[in-house]
Amino acid sequence: MDKLSAIKAVFPDFDIDEALKRLANNAGLYEKLLTKFAASYGGAAGEMQGFIDAGSIQDAERSAHTFKGLAGTIGATKFSETCRTLEYACKSGDKAEIDAAFTAFALGMNELLAQLNAGLEKLKSMA
């Protein structure tokens, strides 16, 4: 099985074709991005919670926007939408809306990281 087929098999919920368009169809680069995302953002939910707790809603909005783009880049469209919801909740300034959107963000980030870590381990075992 070639690398692209293996990646698609391991990450069926990701829009890999769309992600690869942004990366000149480079499956190796895509795998590196997945690895970097998994390694870099384990503390993202805590950081976001810190912004919200400190009343730094503009920082939370910016961070949500950044994660929306990062998730889109790796083809995690469901999580990208979750980030978009948090971004717009922050723009609204409604505390209840922000709290609900943050809860979805934290759960979504945990699920995404678990998927990435499990999938990347599986890819290693397939190599």
Textual characterization of the structure:
With 127 residues, the chain is mostly helical. The protein is built from seven helices and no strands.
Rounded to the nearest angstrom, the radius of gyration is 15 Å
Termini Cα gap: 9 Å
Largest sheet composition:
none
**Total number of beta strands:** 0
H/I helix tally: 7
Percent range for β-strand residues: under 5%
Write the element-wise H/E pattern from the N-terminal end onward. HHHHHHH
Q: What's the helical proportion of residues?
A: over 70%
Net shape: elongated
What is the mean predicted local confidence, pLDDT?
96
> Which consecutive residue ranges, at least 5 long each, have pLDDT under 50?
none
| Secondary-structure class | mainly alpha
Q: Which key features would you list for this structure?
A:
elongated; 127 residues; mainly alpha
Short description:
This protein has seven helices and no strands. With 127 residues, it is mostly helical.
